[in-house]
Amino acid sequence: MAVVSVKVPEWVKEKMKELSNVINWPEEIRNFIIAKINEIERVRAVERAIKILEKVPPVEQGTAKKLIREDRDSH
């Protein structure tokens, strides 16, 4: 694993020390970073999908119904 350092105010560091018997800080910070990365990647994926869908021309109303009916009738 790689090491990442972060600066926090002194009072935060003191509180972290006080709670170190209750909270596994490295694990909490690791989980937060991973969750944040996943969240941003999901948002970006949705944004890319929207851009792709904006380029797709609209179809006539009832097209899906017609295609489903054709598929069902062909069996």
Which features does this protein show?
0% strand; elongated; 75 residues; 68% helix; 3 helices
Layout: helices, strands, pairs:
Blueprint: H1 10-18, H2 25-55, H3 63-73
Please characterize this protein's 3D structure.
The chain has three helices and no strands. By secondary structure, the chain is mainly alpha-helical. The termini are far apart. The relative contact order is 0.05. The mean pLDDT is 95.
Number of DSSP strands?
A: 0
Strand content: under 5%
Radius of gyration, rounded?
25 Å
Give the count of structural domains.
1
Secondary-structure element order, as H and E?
HHH
Mean pLDDT: 95
Helix content: 55-70%
Shape: elongated
In DSSP terms, counting alpha (H) and pi (I) runs of 4 or more, how many helices?
Answer: 3
Task: Measure the end-to-end span.
Answer: 55 Å
Look at the helices and sheets and give the structural class.
Answer: mainly alpha
Gist?
The chain is an all-alpha fold and about 80 residues long.
